[in-house]
Amino acid sequence: METMLTLADFIRKEPKSIHGYPMVYAFSHNWERIEKFQWRPDDIVIATYPKSGTTWISEVVDMIQNDGDIEKCSRSAITEKIPMLELFVPGLRITGTEALEKMPSPRLIKTHLPVDLIPKDCWKNNCKIIYMARNAKDVAVSYYHFDLMNKLEPYPNSWAEYLEKYMTGKVSYGSWFAHVKSWWDKKEDYPMLYLFYEDMKKNPKKEIKKVMHFLGKNLDEEVLRKIIHHTSFEMMKNNPLLNFTNISSKMMDHDVSSHLRKGIIGDWKNYFTVAQNEIFDGLYEKEMARTTLKFCTEV
Ligand code: PPS
């Protein structure tokens, strides 16, 4: 049955509910593959809500793991060397779980799954988890532009319409609030590294060092400088192995928007109207009232 499906069957579809969470329609197919996923104790998981700097932190982790060796880190496109667990596009025969099964250890695994959807063995296996969060408003703007170009998502229509869906948690992977909070809470009973995009922007060296210590590595200053340079926005934007241009235009139209678009803190100010901002702040206050989690939205 699955082999009869083509990419066209997955283009511009509304997300489908998986255990109550809206999931990218294509990825929702054959969900048992996620539930049956075999973790390995030396897996390193990079978890994020979409558009929170996943690609950035992923390349940082790979550089650290490879002691800053750019040649080793250029072994393949980031989408291949760090597969996304839930990725499933039957028409293109791309499956995150299959790619991961074939991969030698230690594996680097990308996921946007909320805590509740992470295959349970992850916790038993003591996999190393790095979570990166980014402020809600810049994520909304980045996600909107991504959905304009990413045909696996429904077409977002106007910014106003998209923001409404985002605020009500009807976009793929659900509510930003629930995602960042549940991972923040998970940190209480599971040792993980919780990072912020904004901290990486302000002081990449400090954050990269945190990752380095978390991974049990000790790299000298020269290597750290190399990592900072190689993973800067400009370098990554122009690196075809890191900017997603390897992904077929049938899935992503890079003429509409780039995966590495602006890479700044505060771009939301160019999109939120005063009224939208007031409504958003009201919701934010309510949703974030009972958490110690704090974000920065401007420099
Ligand atoms: S995805 O598709 O969910 O995995 O996207 P993700 O990589 O999480 O997020 C994409 C946004 O991260 C920005 N980005 C960076 N910012 C600063 N420095 C570096 N090196 C960097 N790499 C990626 C990217 O530009 C997207 O944000 P926006 O605001 O759209 O530019």
What does this 3D model show about the protein?
This protein has 299 residues and is of the alpha/beta class. The chain has a single domain, classed as Rossmann fold. Strand 1 and strand 2 form a beta hairpin. The longest helix has 14 residues. The N and C termini lie far apart (51 Å). Its EC number is 2.8.2.-. This is Sulfotransferase. It is found in: Cytoplasm.
Shape: globular
Distinct ligands? 3'-phosphate-adenosine-5'-phosphate sulfate
Termini separation: 51 Å
Structural class: alpha/beta
The CATH topology name reads: Rossmann fold
Mean pLDDT: 96
CATH class: Alpha Beta
Pfam family, one: Sulfotransfer_1
Organism: Phascolarctos cinereus
EC number: 2.8.2.-
Subcellular location: Cytoplasm
Relevant terms:
8 strands; Rossmann fold; 10% strand; 299 residues; binds 3'-phosphate-adenosine-5'-phosphate sulfate; alpha/beta
Please sum up the structure shown.
This protein is of the alpha/beta class.
Helix-strand blueprint:
Blueprint: E1 16-18, E2 21-23, H1 25-28, H2 32-35, E3 44-48, H3 54-65, H4 70-73, H5 78-81, E4 88-89, E5 94-95, H6 96-101, E6 108-111, H7 121-124, E7 128-133, H8 136-149, H9 159-167, H10 176-186, E8 193-196, H11 197-202, H12 204-214, H13 221-230, H14 233-237, H15 274-287
Parallel strand pairs: 3-6, 3-7, 7-8
Antiparallel strand pairs: 1-2, 4-5
Helix pairs in contact: 12-13
Bound molecules: 3'-phosphate-adenosine-5'-phosphate sulfate.
